[in-house]
Design goal:
The complex is a heterodimer of chains A (199) and B (116). Chain A is mainly alpha-helical and 199 residues long. Chain A is built from ten helices and no strands. Chain A has one domain. With 116 residues, chain B is mainly alpha-helical. Chain B contains six helices and no strands. Chain B has one domain. Classes of the chains: A mainly alpha (199), B mainly alpha (116).
């Protein structure tokens, strides 16, 4: 199909394709944004800004995508905007970096897991991971992206992405095991009985 | 360790389940993108003056005039409308509100269509 490559798409065609892209990936972009910023208000803003940016560069992205899916490109835009979001927040004196941290708003993420302790522990563990590992997990598990898509979104090789995911899961398992450990062995520590309160 | 991995991944998948966007965001963006791409130009031509008395109705035709019909119009409208309440609070008069609205449109139009 050399014609498709040579003839630039019309404005109407671009708009139609952009609308299709938006419909297909609104939920992906929103999910990613939500897990990055931890609340609906900022996630909405991040989602809108992502699609604005995407619209600005859509024609070039189509040209350069060579027929590959555009989801990694969209998520990369959201990723960059989220990074700016944290930089801006960090500059404001009234909100510390911890306040703006990913998945750091327990009142919002708790609602997601609805009291299921093991899921809550996992989300807390995810929040403790280094940025790249946390992002890779969000892309894999919340968005269902495969290694190749994640690699494109994070600008890494497929191999490096596979290793990144593997290490992220292993580290998270370790964090979750650590968090769960004290609750699992409450009776065994050699604490003098006189120091312990009933119950 | 590895024996527990599939279970752990299942839990992880459950913990990080996809989040549906709030209905109003989805509806707002959807209707704007689907309808305004086709309607913006027509609206510009057939906009009734009486509608223009209400500053809330200025956003769409003004954005369309600045950047032309298309999804870009829709996105500008979304962005500008999203801040309507804030502008209203900041403005002491209709005239001031109109000024703020127009400068907001110009700014968003530049962001969406930087080459124009």
């Amino acid at each position: 199909m050399p014609d498709a490559q040579d003839t630039p798409p019309s404005k109407a065609e671009l708009d139609a394709r952009f609308t299709e892209l938006y419909r297909r990936h609104l939920r992906d972009v929103y999910s990613y944004s939500y897990y990055r910023v931890g609340n609906h208000y900022d996630a909405e803003d991040l989602t809108e800004q992502t699609f604005l940016q995407a619209y600005r560069h859509f024609e070039r992205a189509l040209r350069e995508s060579d027929g590959r899916p555009l989801r990694p490109w969209l998520i990369r835009i959201a990723h960059n905007l989220a990074a700016n979001f944290y930089r801006d927040r960090a500059r404001k004196p009234e909100s510390s970096i911890e306040d703006a941290g990913m998945i750091s708003a327990p009142h919002t993420t708790e609602a997601l897991v609805e009291g299921r302790e093991e899921l809550k522990t996992i989300l807390e563990g995810v929040a403790k991971l280094p940025d790249d590992r946390r992002e890779a997990l969000i892309m894999r598990f919340a968005l269902g992206m495969d290694n190749r898509e994640i690699a494109r979104a994070l600008d890494r090789t497929d191999g490096a992405t596979k290793v990144l995911l593997h290490r992220a899961i292993r580290q998270l398992e370790g964090i979750v095991a650590e968090q769960s450990a004290p609750a699992a062995v409450p009776a065994t520590p050699p604490v003098p009985s006189s120091h312990r309160e009933a119950g | 360790m590895s024996a527990g991995a599939p279970d752990f991944e299942a839990l992880l998948r459950e913990a990080l389940s996809p989040i549906d966007p709030p209905a109003d965001l989805a509806a707002r963006m959807e209707s704007a993108l689907v309808n305004l791409t086709e309607l913006a130009q027509e609206e510009l031509e057939s906009w009734e003056l009486s509608t223009m008395r209400d500053p809330r109705n200025w956003v769409r035709p003004a954005a369309a005039a600045m950047i032309g019909a298309g999804a870009g119009t829709a996105l500008v409208v979304l962005r500008v409308r999203g801040r309507h309440r804030a502008r209203k609070q900041q403005s002491s008069s209709l005239r001031e509100l109109a000024g703020r609205t127009i400068s907001d449109i110009a700014e968003e139009a530049r962001r969406v269509m930087p080459d124009r």
